[in-house]
């Protein structure tokens, strides 16, 4: 780059990718280099945003938006100012299904910090996340039947609005805008009066018809739903607007893409052939395969089916077994062990516990101990919770239990979309991605054994890699996805076939 500047040529523009995940915020910068496009700088920060729900009690799952934005600001402050000043495009993805409310004219306030102007949430609610459990099956059955191919579930944005409408109507009167957490960030960066939401995120809220690309406004209006809260909807490739301020040194006027679903992004980052399937295990877990071009999902869903169809890119769809139980199950297990040791008068940090249980599991052989890990239920069978069977006195070590738990997570996902079904759909290989799969050798071994998969890329940056690739291809079509490489911890292994 210095050589280019010295030769009188302008420094290449950068693309900034941001992922607002369930537990962390990640940011990465894509730059041009002699070997192609590279992720030159990256940063990740834990949000520590989970907070209690005053209205929903223990069934609620909420996050403090101020903490999420604080983690985002910390990420950007850690990136080189010289490169941020060359950012021309910003791509943002995040956790789907959830909803945050805000006041349009008071959604944020812009302030000066050490790296330039930044925004802070003002009149904004908590984020009610995809893990929220306040909408019981009985409550959901009392709602109007959606005109959508996706079954309504607790944690979906529109279901949450109905819950407030019936349980706490005064809450909704304080706000006049709503979106996912990444829709909120895009709206604040661009100064949007009306939030703009991609088809991917709209479908994840419920009451959205993917064929007509429109909300079920007639159905919603008849039941008194506050339809003014629904965002405008756009295609995944569209531009939402331009930055209204020089954010952390990023020039005013940088283009901002419409917010994308983190799941679709993680799939896009490693899916190269229609004969590929993707296993993703992060906070939750998914097993997915792309449907043939021109496929349209059924007009009405099968509520008992474990497979649903998510809007992807270019009007394509993904067949998805989306489990609510993934890395969050292991995190809950680690938390349980930490609490037990604390009750015994000892203190061990959770990261140390995670390392120890993996080491213990690697030192043991498989046993007949069986863990069905669905402590968070599943959308198609919410009443079925976790269980442990085949308990023998010889299989009670920490290593045995951890191995059984990892095996259970993979087997649960395989039961939702069996390998035989994938083979019938023409799948020839399965690619693995996700932070939980990357950091857990036991989980990866169980996935290999059950699915014959391989890690596809550096999973800690998988979503950002997609954002950077997708936006770069949209705006500079001469570049190939395959030229984009990660500077940090690239993880590739030989392809294994189903």
Secondary structure layout:
Blueprint: H1 2-6, E1 14-20, E2 24-33, E3 36-46, E4 50-51, E5 62-63, H2 65-78, H3 81-84, E6 87-94, E7 100-102, E8 108-113, E9 116-121, E10 127-128, H4 137-141, H5 157-167, H6 169-172, E11 177-179, H7 181-190, E12 196-198, H8 199-205, E13 208-209, E14 214-215, H9 217-222, E15 232-234, E16 239-242, E17 255-257, E18 260-261, H10 262-268, E19 276-281, E20 285-290, E21 307-311, E22 317-323, H11 327-343, H12 350-362, E23 370-372, E24 387-389, H13 398-416, H14 419-424, E25 429-433, H15 435-439, H16 441-451, E26 453-455, H17 462-475, E27 485-486
Parallel strand pairs: 1-6, 3-27, 6-17, 6-18, 12-15, 19-25, 25-26
Antiparallel strand pairs: 1-2, 2-3, 4-5, 5-10, 7-11, 8-9, 13-14, 16-17, 19-20, 20-22, 21-22, 23-24
Please provide a written account of the structure:
With 498 residues, this protein is of the alpha/beta class. Helix content is 32%, strand content 24%. It has 17 helices and 27 strands. Strands 1, 2, 3, 6, 16, 17, 18 and 27 form an eight-stranded mixed sheet that branches. A six-stranded mixed sheet has the order 21-22-20-19-25-26, sandwiched between helices. Helix 11 packs across helix 12 (350-362) and helix 12 (350-362) packs across helix 13. The protein is globular.
């Amino acid at each position: 780059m210095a050589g280019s500047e010295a030769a009188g040529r302008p420094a290449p523009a950068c693309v900034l990718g941001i992922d607002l995940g369930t537990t962390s915020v990640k940011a990465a910068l894509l730059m041009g280099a002699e070997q192609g496009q590279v992720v030159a700088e990256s940063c990740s920060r834990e949000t520590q945003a989970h907070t209690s729900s005053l209205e929903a009690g223990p069934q609620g799952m909420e996050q403090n938006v101020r903490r999420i934005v604080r983690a985002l600001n910390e990420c950007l402050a850690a990136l080189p100012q010289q490169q941020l000043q060359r950012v021309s495009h910003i791509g943002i993805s995040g956790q789907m299904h959830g909803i945050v409310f805000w006041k349009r004219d008071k959604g944020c306030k812009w302030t000066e910090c050490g790296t330039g102007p930044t925004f802070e949430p003002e009149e904004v609610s908590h984020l009610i996340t995809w893990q929220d459990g306040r909408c019981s099956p009985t409550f959901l059955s009392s709602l109007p039947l959606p005109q959508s191919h996706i079954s309504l579930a607790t944690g979906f944005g529109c279901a949450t609005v109905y819950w407030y409408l019936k349980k706490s109507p005064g809450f909704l009167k304080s706000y006049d805008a709503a979106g996912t957490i990444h829709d909120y960030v895009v709206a604040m960066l661009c100064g949007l009066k009306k939030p703009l939401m991609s088809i991917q995120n709209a479908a994840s809220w419920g009451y959205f018809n993917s064929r007509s690309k429109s909300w079920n406004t007639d159905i919603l209006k008849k039941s008194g739903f506050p339809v003014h809260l629904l965002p405008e909807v756009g295609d995944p490739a569209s531009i939402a607007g331009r930055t209204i301020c020089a954010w952390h040194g990023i020039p005013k006027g940088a283009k901002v893409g419409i917010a994308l679903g983190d799941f679709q992004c993680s799939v896009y980052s490693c899916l190269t052939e229609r004969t590929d399937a993707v296993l993703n295990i992060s906070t939750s877990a998914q097993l997915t395969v792309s449907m043939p071009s021109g496929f349209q999902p059924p007009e009405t869903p099968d509520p008992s089916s474990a497979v649903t169809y998510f809007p992807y890119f270019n009007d394509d769809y993904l067949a998805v077994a989306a489990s609510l139980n993934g890395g969050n199950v292991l995190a809950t297990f680690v938390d349980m062990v930490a609490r037990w040791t604390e009750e015994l008068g000892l203190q061990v940090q959770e990261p140390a516990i995670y390392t120890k249980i993996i080491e213990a599991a690697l030192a043991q052989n498989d046993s007949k101990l069986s863990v069905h890990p669905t402590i968070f239920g599943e959308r198609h069978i919410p009443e079925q919770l976790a269980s442990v069977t085949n308990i023998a006195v010889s299989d009670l070590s920490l290593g045995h239990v951890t191995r059984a738990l990892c095996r259970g997570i993979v087997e649960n996902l395989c039961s939702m979309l069996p390998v035989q079904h994938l083979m019938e759909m023409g799948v020839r290989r399965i690619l693995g991605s996700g932070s939980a799969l990357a950091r857990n050798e036991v989980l990866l071994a169980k996935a290999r054994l059950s699915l014959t998969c391989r890690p596809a890329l550096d999973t800690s940056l998988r979503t950002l890699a997609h954002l950077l690739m997708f936006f770069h291809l949209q705006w500079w079509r001469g570049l190939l996805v395959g030229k984009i490489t990660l500077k940090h911890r690239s993880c590739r292994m030989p392809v294994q076939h189903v």
